[in-house]
Structure formats: structure tokens, C-alpha cells
Amino acid sequence: MKDIKQWFRSGSPWVWLNAGAVTASIVMVAALIMLIAVRGLGHFWAKPIFEAEYVEADGTTIRLIGEIHDSERVPAERLRDKGVAVAQGVETIQRFLVKTGNRDTGGLDFRWALESQIRERHFPEELIALERYEWGNFYGYLKSVKESGEIIAEGEAAWPELLTRLQRVAELHQQIKAIEKVEIGAVNYNMERLRLRGRSLELDGEEAGSRRFVTLDEERAVLQREYEGLQRNLNELLHQVERDSITAEVMDGRIVELPLAQVVRAYRPNAMGMFSKIGFYMSKLWEFVSEDPREANTEGGIFPAIFGTVLMVILMSIFVTPFGVVAAVYLREYAKQGPLTRTIRIAVNNLAGVPSIVYGVFGLGFFVYFLGGNIDQLFFPEALPSPTFGTGGLMWASLTLAILTVPVVIVATEEGLSRIPRSIREGSMALGATKAETLWRTVLPMASPAMMTGLILAVARAAGEVAPLMLVGVVKLAPSLGLDGNYPFLHLDRKFMHLGFHIYDVGFQSPNVEAARPLVYATALLLVLVIVLLNLAAIAIRNHLREKYRALEH
Fold first, then answer.
1. Do 163 and 145 contact (CB within 8 A), yes or no?
2. Nearest to 399 by CA among 450, 365, 373
3. What are the helix and strand counts (H, E) for the chain?
4. Domain limits of the chain?
5. Is the pLDDT score of 168 beyond 70?
6. How far is it, in rounded angstroms, from Cα 383 to Cα 373?
7. φ, ψ for residue 149, nearest 5 deg
8. Which among 236, 305, 344, 464 has the fewest CB atoms less than 10 Å away?
9. At what angle do helices 303-329 and 499-508 cross, to 10 degrees?
10. Burial of 381 (0-12, 13-18, 19+ CB in 10 A)
11. Quick one: CA torsion of 224, 226, 230, 233, rounded to 10 degrees?
């Protein structure tokens, strides 16, 4: 008994308890990330497509073609209540969520199928899967390939011909995208700038027909000719991409014709080997991180959301670091330590606990409506009534999150300043440096690791925030990125996409919940990886600074 009391007094039980709690936390976090990774990354694997006979509840038999998306066990009693014949003594029955695709021909691309009602399931190598820009996946048997309505290949020769022509269509799509988004986009952007310049001249009282208006008309005529040339090229490419089509048999026996212009990718998963599936998986994964979304964000990639998240966090860091450091320097180095300073510190600490949506409301009222509205009145009157900065955008979102995270930077910087020995300051001033020079050349560099710690915490919190962004600039789909090749290159007034909001939109606002669910996991995993990479970069800088100034601390 005495030994146990002595053991408790030594503090060893609490050390082991803390170690166990930390271990349990690490295991739970690792398990959560593993669950997200398995459910998200598994979505990109080429799943086999089966064909089977399926007996409906009324006894009719249909042909079922699709891939197994999910499975679960359901109580037999629930099925008996719905009129499904279930053998006595059976308590649960497994059912599959089958992705049948072909939403344009069948109305739904998912359906539940009882395992006991599936007959003669097999996996023909001839079954094809098509990923499309619209209407989701297509499953069926390829019959023929057509060019301008005439059959070019059918039977066994149809598949290699399809792949060849699909490669041609993909190249045409790339050219169309370059013309629409880059070249025509730049012309439209410059045309809009000319329109605003003309409106500005009107507001300044410039007379119609003056030299300035003539110059604008000449520039507009040049852009119009350029636009017409690009439009002719675009129409020619659109005509070429609509040339090819295929015919295929769907599971109800109908033969349908599909234009290749609507097909993103074609593959036969049942005929693919391991290396082919790995190559397919890598191409799908690259598409996910490098392409734009499609099909109401349930297909394609999420590059605009990645870009918007990283750009917003970088801008937030640029805004929050100077304000947080200056505030911390004033409170620690210049402010008189008394009741007022203590009250300010208490207020700063309390700000860290304010719900983020409150910051969003503040950002909407102060930044968007007040500052943005006045900026539009003073500097962009020609654009009114359409707002330029008087609506949510990249700058207001970054500033809102900067205010949300500035208490973290202030507290961390103050802690770093308090750890700098007084002898360092006294030694610098004894050598003739002023207080400002001592602060700028000696104290702040030595406190920079603590500043980086505050920035790391700020980035970790800001990158995952969604609620305030919904009020100050984030959107479901942003047609243009905040950084592009059009002057002034960085467009702080534009709305943007964000990974956190993308998860919310796909998970809760999607019209096709089953198709969107794997993308929720994949996007969540990517958001975690983005935050980790941003933090690792900041941690590397912090460690470098810590090593650089460690000798001075001793």
C-alpha cells in the first residue's frame, strides 16, 4: 500500500495517463484519415461491370448492367412489408447499391438490388463504360462507330476505332477550351474595360465624338475583329467535334446513339489488367486535382477550389502577420503595463473564442457593404449599379479571416517577445542602438519562430473555415480564377471556390447524393493534405529561423 501511495506521489500515473491519452488521440486521428482516404481514393479505381438477370418484386425478370457502388444488410421484416418474398427464418438480407448509369435513358443511375434476386451474374469483357460531360456514366455494349451519320466500324473493330476518335475529340476539346477561356475570355475582358472607360468619360462630361471616344471606338473595332476571327475558329472546331458518334446497346435492349463530343473517357474495366487499372487510376486522380468540376460538382476535378483555398490563405497570411506582429510589439514593448493593457489582452484572448459566423456577419457589414460600397462610389462609379468591391470577393474573404485569426498571431508573438532575455536588449542599446533599431534588428528576428508558430495556427484555422466565407465571397462555381493573365493579374474583387465550401455543397446540396458521396471524402482528404502542406512549409521556415537565432539566446 505504501509503495502504491509513493508511486502516485511520484507523478508516474499521470505521465502514463497523458501518454495513453495522446496515443489514443493519434490512433483516432489516423483511423479517421484512413477512413476518409479509403472511401475517397477508392472512388477512382476502375470497378468491374456485371451483367445479370434480376427478379423484380412482382416476379418480372429484367437485365441488369452496372457496377456495385455500395452494400448493406437490411431486416427481412422490412422487405416482407413491401411485398418481397423472403424465406422464413431469414433475419437479414444483403442488398447492393448498383450504379446502372444511363440517366438519360433510364431516369436514374442508381438502384438497390437484393442479392437473393440476382441470377447468373457474370462480367463480359465487351461491356464498356463511358464518362460523359452530362447525364453521368453510360454502361452498355458498343455496336458501331459513325462519322457524319455513316458507319465506319462495327463489331470487334469498333472499340479501337472508338479510342482513336475519342483521342481526336479530346484534342479538339482542349483547343476549344483554350479559345473559350483564354483567348475569347481575354477579348471579352478587354471589351468590358473599354466599356467602363467609355462610361467614365460620360460621367466626366466628355462630349460624344471627341478624340478619346474615337480612340475607344478604334480599340473596340480591333477587339471586335479579333473576336470574330476567334469565333470563326471556334465554330469550325465545334463542327469538327460533333462529327463522330457511336451506337450502343443499353440494358433494356434499346440501341442508342451517343455523340463523342459528350464523352470524356471510354474504358472496358472487365478487360483491364492490373497495370491498366493503375494507369487509369492515376489519370483519374490527376483529373481530380487538375481539372474543373462538371455535373453540378459531382464529376470532374476540383482545381479551382484548391487554387482558391491556397490563394485565400496566402492573402490572409499577408494581411494578418503585420497587424498581429505590430499589435503584439506595442502591447509588449511600448504599452504601459496596467489595467488598460490587461483589459486589452483579455479582449484579445476572448476574440479567439468568438464563433466564426460572427466574423462573417462583421465582414459582410463592414468590409462588403461599408468599405466596398464606398470604394465603388469613389473609384468605380462607371461600373455602378453593378458592384465591383461592394460584393463578396477574394480580398474581403481574406481580410475577414485575417481578423478571425489575428488574436492567435498576437498571443504567439507576445509569448515569443517575452522569452527574449532582457540582456539582449540592454546589450544592443549599450552599443548605441536605439530602441527601435534594437527591436527591428535584434528582438524581432529572434522572436520570428514564435511569429511563425502564430502563423501556422492561423493558417490551420483559416484554411478549414467555411461559415464566414459563405457571406463574404465563396461560391459554388467560379468561372474565372482570382489570378490570371489579364491585367492587373491578381483580381481581388472576384469570387472564388473553396475546398471547405465545396465539401458542404457536394455533400448537402448535390442533386445526386450517391454519386457525390465519394467526392466528399476525396475532397475532405485533399483539404487535410493542403492544410498539412501549408503548415509543413511554415514549420520548415520556423525551424530554420530557430536554428539561426539559437546561439544568440544563449
1. no
2. 365
3. 19, 13
4. 50-135, 142-287, 303-553
5. yes
6. 12
7. 90, -10
8. 236
9. 130
10. middle
11. 110
Mapped onto helix, strand or coil, the DSSP state of residue 23 is: helix
- How big is the chain, counted in residues? 554
Give the residue carrying C-alpha cell 481514393: 41
Instruction: In whole angstroms, give the CA distance from residue 496 to residue 386.
Output: 18
Rounded CA gap, 107 and 160, in Å? 30
| Segment 413-470, tens digit of pLDDT | 888 888 888 888 878 888 888 888 888 888 888 888 888 888 888 888 888 888 899 9
| Average pLDDT over all residues of the chain | 86
Name the grid cell of 481: 480564377
Query: How do strand 263-267 and strand 244-249 relate by DSSP bridges?
Result: unpaired
* pLDDT classification of 197: cutoffs 50, 70, 90: confident
* Per-residue cell: 303: 482545381
Helix%, strand%, coil% for the chain, nearest 5? 65, 15, 20
CA distance 523 to 521: 6
Confirm if 510 and 475 have CB atoms less than 8 A apart. no
Distances (CA, A) of 96 to 68, 115, 131, 236: 6, 7, 22, 46
What's the pLDDT score for residue 553?
52
Determine the Cα–Cα distance for residues 519 and 296; give it in Å rounded to an integer: 12
> Residue 392 corresponds to which cell in the numbers above?
463578396
Which residue's entry shows cell 462480367?
A: 123
Q: Hey, what's the cell of 32? A: 479517421
Q: Can you tell me the mean pLDDT for 509-518?
A: 80
Q: Which three cell numbers stand for residue 380?
A: 468605380
Query: Strand, helix or coil at 296?
Result: coil
- Contact of 355 with 437, CB cutoff 8 Å: no
pLDDT in tens, 374-412: 999 988 888 888 888 989 899 999 999 999 999 989 988
Report the DSSP pairing between strands 293-294 and 255-259.
unpaired
Q: Given 1.50.10.20, 3.40.50.1110, 1.10.3720.10, 3.30.565.10, which CATH number is that of 303-553? A: 1.10.3720.10
Q: Give the mean pLDDT of 337-354.
A: 83
